[in-house]
Design goal:
homodimer; 86 residues; alpha+beta; two-stranded antiparallel ribbon; flat
């Protein structure tokens, strides 16, 4: 596989700066960072006593949960599609 | 909406114990916790100098990234399905 060009950007998430490196566009990387920032602020608003570390872990838990739900829906669509294609 | 019964469990993620509360089964919640734990350990193995908080933020970033990629694929399937259904 040819080596893809990597984008390197700095993003701010919950008051800290992170360097992100990836083959995705910087627009995509900024979107990801801003979604994580939003989720952290949302969880923090409901649990003001959490420290940043626990808050970040719960944000990761939340994201993986969303991912698994979407994966279930995705697999259902795949089955439907398979039936329709015969 | 009728109130759903909530499950309350304790899980261990990266050496810390978290109380999880949710309408999902405890099996699902344990799966989510173990996926987050795995991801944190994987990222940590590549970046041993990261503190837990940054590690957890990067884990969340990683999960949201996976979510967005899957969402794109999901939307493509939806379009295919729509065409097939006419």
């Amino acid at each position: 596989m040819a080596e893809q060009e990597k984008n390197r950007i700095s993003v701010e998430i919950y008051g800290n700066t992170y360097k992100m490196v990836g083959t995705e566009s910087s627009v995509h990387m900024r979107l990801v960072a801003s979604l994580v920032d939003d989720k952290m602020r949302e969880i923090s608003a409901h649990n003001p006593s959490l420290d940043t570390s626990k808050l970040a872990v719960l944000t990761a838990v939340n994201s993986v949960h969303d991912y698994l739900l979407l994966k279930e829906q995705y697999e259902k669509l795949e089955i439907q599609l398979k039936h329709l294609k015969g």
